[in-house]
Structure formats: C-alpha cells, structure tokens
C-alpha cells in the first residue's frame, strides 16, 4: 500500500504547460506498448499496481550476497514481488552489486533480470524514462551519486527511490558533514516527499529505516534557482566511512551511464 500510494502520486504529479506529465511520459511508449509476452512472469493481465506503471523501469543496487544472507534473500524476494505486482517485465530490471558471486549472477540471469557488468556507483541517468531505484541499505554516497547524475527537475521528477530514509540521514549526520560530503542529498530534502515502509517484526532487519522517496516537480520548481547552478561531480576524498565499493575508473572524468 505504501508503494502503491507513492507510485500513484509519482505518475500523476504535475501538469506542465500544455499537457500533463503523465501524458508526456506515456508518449515515450506510444510505439512500444507492452503486449502479453512482455508481462512479468506470474502477473495477471490488468492487475497492475498503478495505471501506467508497466511503463516503469527498475534499477536495483546493493542487494548483497543473497546466497548466504537471509536479509538479502528477503530483499530479493521483495524486488521480484514488486516487479510482478507492477507488471514490470523482469528484462526491464537492471541489478548490480560488486559483491555478487558467479553463482548469484547465474541465479539472477535465470530469474530473467539483467545483471549489469560494470560498477556504476549509482551514477545512472534516467534518460527521460520513469524509473524506480531499489537500493536497500546502500551507502549514502550511492544515493548522492544517483541524485547528481539526475540533477534537474525534469529528471528527478521521473524517479522514485526505495532505500534508506533521507530524513533519517539528515537526523543522524552532522549538518556540515551532510552538506560537505553528500551535498545533493542535503539539497534535495526540500524538494522530496518521503513515506516510511511499514515495519513488521519478522522483517525488522530487512526493511528497517527504509522509505519510498519521490520528487514532485511542483516542489522542485519552487527551489531557489541556485540549487541547480552547482553541479560539481561528488568528490569523496575527505570522506571517512564511505560505505561503497568504488569503481576502478572512479574519478572526475567518469561519465554517468544512461538508462538502456
């Protein structure tokens, strides 16, 4: 229900001059509407979580070693159920964790999702396509990189992030640390909506401190103009507890990959 409500607001959030944002996004798929063969395995035709959600893409970072960790297995199960309920074809879901073993990659291939071959460090542009990012318990730098890669009202309004609570990060980190090390997380706090995932005792360690975040265009457009003027690539040289595994090509010249 939490994600249902968030997706509904995400997909119908703003009317831009001349047409609704939902219409603009729908036009991207006028010539490639999914047919029955494109539906997610196990889904029921017409039983979509939210109208229009079958046009969504999904990217999952930081799932962990689900072959040996029960928490990661539960998070993987949630991902598969989410894809099924939203009728997002599994081939439209991209997954990556630098810790995946060859066995885990083979399992994911067998499940029909696409395993990315390179460590993007979260630097993926949505490319104009509405995209859900599922990032359970990832390092803060990964969220910061994702925001930087999509730092415009147009791109952010097409994103929905399921991951660590941004408000929780604001509460736990010193303000100067948040603004220095994770400036894009800090700046987006005034332009987001957040709803915490419900906590149930059997899964307390699986989804604790996780929320659904979306970025209504009307809120983003009310942010001060200088919010968007600063767009320097994140530099974590002075950051101590980075909590992410860096790519070998990390550096100022590393480009942000766009969605497939």
TrEMBL record:
Pfam families named in the record: SRR1
GO CC annotation, single: nucleus
Superkingdom per UniProt: Eukaryota
All copies of domain SRR1-like, residue ranges: 55-214
Protein family (similarity comment): Belongs to the SRR1 family.
Protein name: SRR1L protein
């Amino acid at each position: 229900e939490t994600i249902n409500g968030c997706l509904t607001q995400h997909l119908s959030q703003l009317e831009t001059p001349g047409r609704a944002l939902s219409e603009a996004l729908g036009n991207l798929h006028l010539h490639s509407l999914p047919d029955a063969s494109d539906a997610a395995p196990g889904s029921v035709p017409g039983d979509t979580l939210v109208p229009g959600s079958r046009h969504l893409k999904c990217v999952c970072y930081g799932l962990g070693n689900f072959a040996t960790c029960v928490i990661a297995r539960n998070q993987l199960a949630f991902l598969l159920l989410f894809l099924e309920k939203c009728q997002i074809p599994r081939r439209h879901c991209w997954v990556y964790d630098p810790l995946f073993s060859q066995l885990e990659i083979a399992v994911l291939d067998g499940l029909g999702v696409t395993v990315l071959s390179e460590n993007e460090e979260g630097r993926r542009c949505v490319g104009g396509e509405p995209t859900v990012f599922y990032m359970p318990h990832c390092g803060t730098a990964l969220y910061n990189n994702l925001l930087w890669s999509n730092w415009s009202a147009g791109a952010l309004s097409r994103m929905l992030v399921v991951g660590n609570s941004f408000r929780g990060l604001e509460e736990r980190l010193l303000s100067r640390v948040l603004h220095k090390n994770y400036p894009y997380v800090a700046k987006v706090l005034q332009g987001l909506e957040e709803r915490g995932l419900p906590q149930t005792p059997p899964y307390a360690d699986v989804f604790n401190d996780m929320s659904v975040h979306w970025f209504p265009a009307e809120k983003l457009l009310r942010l001060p103009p200088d919010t968007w003027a600063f767009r320097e690539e994140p530099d974590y040289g002075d950051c101590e507890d980075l909590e992410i595994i860096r790519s070998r090509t990390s550096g100022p010249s590393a480009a942000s990959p766009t969605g497939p």
